[in-house]
Amino acid sequence: MKPARIPQIVSAPEHWAELPKGEYFRDALERQLKPWLAKMYGFHLLKIGNLSAEINTESCAISHQVNVSLAGQPIQVKADPLHLPFAEKSVDACLLANTLPWCSDPHRLLREADRVLIDDGWLILSGFNPMSLMGLRKLVPVLRRKSPYNSRMFTFTRQLDWLSLLNFEVMHYSGFQVLPWTQQGGKMLTTHFPALGCMQLIVARKRTIPLTLNPMKQSKAKSRIRQAVGATRQFRKP
């Protein structure tokens, strides 16, 4: 398994239109996100990365939505996603729409999102699936330097493991857009074979208590009350 952190920096596309059939990917992602955005409430939503900024989130009840990126349009806060200029536990939801694939240090990016999220805050991740038609095309040497094949592609298992270490509860994960060259992505194939989808979606929530209880710690927490010697004894004079 290749390390998640890499020394080289790959330029992320500033718009979905720069990707082959990028508008199809964006529309498909918006359809998958719509029912989950309707469940989110709060005060602040961060859209991290240029591709996140172009996602339509009107169905979300969070009115204050901020686009964060180093360059490109439309952005409102110019900042490095690895060093978010926000206080701890100040954001209700973070959207990373295909931000991890072009990030040189995905672990740090997830830790930054975890830092600024409030307790029970929402984290939305999307990316490309290595076990798909797009993943197979990444194996072609000629295509490796072109978008989106120059991006990182992480499996569901690896991403879910990262979220588990940060104590996130995964509410939903699925694949979609099995056929990347069609607008609907192959409805029948997506319904019956979502694992082959070229796009991935993970919706998770930040939890404050351990999701898996440690029986050793749990037994130590139960302190026994010792009975005081002679406290309940009654002595009678002969």
From TrEMBL:
Enzyme Commission number(s) of this protein: 2.1.1.-
Methyltransferase type domain residues: 76-125
Single GO MF descriptor: methyltransferase activity
Keyword field: Methyltransferase, Transferase
GO biological process: methylation
Keyword Methyltransferase in record: yes
Top EC class for this record: transferase
Protein name: Class I SAM-dependent methyltransferase
